[in-house]
Amino acid sequence: MQSQDVAPRPPSASAPVLDVGQAEAALVEHYPRLVRLAYLLLPPGLGRGRRVLAAHSLAQRALPRGRSSTPVAPDGTTDPGTDPAYGFLRARVVRTALAADPPRRRAVRRRRAQLPPPLPLVWGLKLFPRAGGADELALDQQLASLPGPARAAYVLRGLEQLPDDAVRRILSAAGVADPEAALRQAERVPDRSALLTSPEFDPCSLQARPTDLLRRRQRGKAVLAATAALAVCGALAALPDGGWGPDGAAAPVYARNASAEAALDPARLTRVSPTAWRTSARLDLSAWPARGDRTGDTALLRRALAVWARPGGSVRVSATPGTATGGPAGPPQLLYAGDVDGAHVVLLHDGLRVARYAEPKGSASGAALDLARVDGASGAEAAAVVLNRSDGNVRYLTAPWVKKAAGQDLRAPGSEPSDLALTDGVTAPLAGPAPRAGACASWQALRLSGDFGAYVLGDLGELVPARLTTGRPTAPHDASGDGARRTWAPFACSLSVLRSQGVRSVNAWRYAEQELPDEGGTAAWVCTRADTWRGTGSQVLAQLRIPGVRYGAAVARSADVTACGARDPQVLAGALWKSRTGSWYLLAAGGSRTESITASNGVDATARGNVLAVPAKKGLRPELKGTLDDGRPLDMLR
């Protein structure tokens, strides 16, 4: 839903007043969004590392200074329905980011105090966002070719979903001489709004690499020696005769330690019996036997353990969000060691994480280490781990209780699953899901069945696939039945927005059906909730499926909320819809326990029951409030 046009107006005594505390709260709440906005607006010539630090600096410096309150939106940069504090911060970020653009620097020399200072500082590390695919790289190059104002127009349209009039006001307030020209120049780049939310442009999810190690060593030898001597002398002076230091009986940092050495010894790896799962009290990774044709390759296992404990600079290390990257505390469990698609692969489990080590055959260079949390995984969540990715295909290592594997196209609920051969628990290659951008004609999921039921797992680009379920959040069931497959079909492609976020499970709940005005048929409302391994960072997406449309449309998205979950199985969402007659309507729906829905802010209407459909104007951003059958209020999903 888009906001109504509001003409710019000069400051007045009646202008809303923004307290600094409100601005700080909005900055904390929307910090990742503001930093992503700043990163996309900053000149690409700065380089990815400097852009990351500058983006964080811009977002942090957006807070007003020198007074306890300040008028907001005197230049019309905040629309109705938008948090005034967020709109104020967004306008300041845009203005300061454009001031840093090279063609505008001469014009803003007197405003250098507003440019990002050399903080935050990071010594000894290079920080940059996760690498994306070819589509993200192409979009980054196209944005780099645009001048700063045009780049800002494109990002405000795509990332912030603002109408052109709102973009003009923000650019004008930021000092752009010709906002109209900036909008025209932005149209030279194809609309790829979905890519702007990918990890490629997320300066809050970073990878780290060392800087020039040789130069740092040469310059630091004298300082290091002096510091070490001073530390030793100080420690000796501080210790009483026969007493302990501040760390008690702990050994020095780099001393030999029996537990640490045991964790690196291939001979001490835990190996589970192939039949242990039949009598185990738990169906989790601890019951998996060691498989593969290189379980006796001591040299390979030693390299895998050493790299896990101390990955070198040439090792590509990745970890799901919230996963610790340090080595195991003791001897881990061996899950697999063997040759897969031209690589030596080792899978290890330390009780909390799965580690995958891979190296090209015949060479230890080009090694990769992937880590993922699996604490508390059991049943379907412990049924498969990604073994290898090659040429767009994925091989999985499955649990010993899995008897059959198949590929299931979530976009084609009427199609039969395609069987995958299982060899010592390793599946034949399965085509990966749809790409991030472009047409989404299919979405391949992994269907597993065995002694303990059938599961459907989705590959979200990480080491452990996510469990896919359907049904009411308090009683979800695996998406293996015909009804569950029909529920997922229109919304499967929305899984692409959940890649690389450490997702544990995704549930699709068809919470309402609604008869559309003007004989538009019956629409379906579905809420998809993605929960993570780390507990925080859950994603909730409300989607609307219109009859005759192949895909569901996302109408609201929130993070870290309880909606659509087991703790609070309620939801309320709305959208503007244009009927076949050309009339615009506000559609809204809540769960079965919603007793009434009230709309405001441009649409004043109340409906009894859990659905609402009233005439509206294009571009509005109405507010929705619901009431549950027990009298509790219900807020809309944003």
List the helices and strands and how they pair.
Elements: E1 17-19, H1 20-29, H2 31-41, H3 48-60, E2 69-71, H4 84-99, E3 125-129, H5 134-144, H6 148-158, H7 164-173, H8 179-186, E4 206-210, H9 213-238, H10 258-263, H11 298-309, E5 316-319, E6 333-340, E7 343-349, E8 353-360, E9 368-373, E10 384-390, E11 393-398, E12 402-409, E13 418-420, E14 422-423, E15 426-427, E16 430-431, E17 444-450, E18 453-458, E19 466-470, E20 477-478, H12 482-488, E21 503-515, E22 522-532, E23 539-545, E24 553-559, E25 572-578, E26 584-590, E27 594-600, E28 605-608, E29 611-615, E30 623-628, E31 633-635
Parallel strand pairs: 5-9, 19-21
Antiparallel strand pairs: 1-2, 3-4, 6-7, 7-8, 8-9, 10-11, 11-16, 12-13, 12-17, 14-15, 17-18, 18-19, 19-20, 21-22, 22-23, 23-24, 25-26, 26-29, 27-28, 27-30, 30-31
Helix pairs in contact: 1-4, 2-3, 2-4, 6-7, 6-8
Could you please describe the fold and organization of this structure?
This protein has 638 residues and is α+β, with helices and mostly antiparallel strands. Strands 12, 13, 17, 18, 19, 20, 21, 22, 23 and 24 form a ten-stranded mixed sheet that branches. The chain has a five-stranded mixed sheet with strand order 5-9-8-7-6, with helices on one face. The chain has a four-stranded antiparallel sheet with strand order 28-27-30-31, with no helix packed on it. A hairpin with a 6-residue loop joins β22 and β23. α1 packs across α4. The termini are close together. Residues 1-15, 104-118 and 235-255 have low confidence and may be disordered.
